[in-house]
Amino acid sequence: MSPIELNKRQEEILEIVKGNGPITGEQIAERLSLTRATLRPDLAILTMAGYLDARPRVGYFYSGKKTGQAVIDSMMNMKVKDFQSIPVVVSENISVYDAICQMFLEDVGTLFVVDKNAYLTGVLSRKDLLRTSIGNQDLNHIPVHIIMTRMPNIAFCMKTDGLIQAAQKLIERQIDALPVVLEHPDGYEVIGRLTKTNITRAFLSLADNHDL
Ligand code: ADP
């Protein structure tokens, strides 16, 4: 299902009908200096999509987009870049102890691990660090690359991806966060972090924007 994107002329028709309805197709055409025949496909689309109602011998009037459709359209237009957070990255050689400190300091639940070229190589979650901490090991001497989940097993997304697709990845892989990456010829640069909290924010913004 894809949202209906109105073209410029269809937007103009909507404005005319909003301000002047009920109004006949002839009158709309006159205002736009077009023929009735030229407008026919646009009027058909606007009527079928529920923006306009047409009554025989009366003309077109604005019905307003149905809330359900408007919510669906907004949801399908939500992009990762509109809701992503700043990523927290650490280098592969820092110790598990330092990674734990970093997690507390930055107040995040997932750290992304990068190599010397700043390309993504791993992910560290809270439980990865906890698991290592309950062993009888010196956390200062274990580098994070030993315990992280590593490429190519990392689920990630791009900033232009739809938020729904990103949410699907979080659920399917049972993880809390996705790195938002920019693809380079020899690796992925981490440019953002998309978490379940971001998805919850998006959900709330839908409710706010549509007065739900
Ligand atoms: P936690 O383990 O704290 O509940 P997650 O559910 O995010 O947090 O992580 C579960 C496991 O999945 C961990 O081992 C973690 O390294 C791994 N993981 C987390 N994020 C990703 C990701 N984007 N891609 C692949 N694996 C991930």
TrEMBL record:
State the name under which the record lists this protein: CBS domain-containing protein
What SUPFAM superfamilies does this protein map onto? CBS-domain pair (SSF54631), Winged helix' DNA-binding domain (SSF46785)
Which controlled-vocabulary keywords does the entry list? CBS domain, Repeat
Question: Taking every annotated instance into account, which residue ranges of this chain make up the domain CBS?
Answer: 83-139, 148-212
Q: Which InterPro entries match?
A: CBS_dom, CBS_dom_sf, CBS_domain-containing, HTH_11, UCP026546_HTH-CBS, WH-like_DNA-bd_sf, WH_DNA-bd_sf
Which top-level group of life is the source organism from? Bacteria
UniProt KW Repeat keyword: yes
Q: Which SMART domains match?
A: CBS
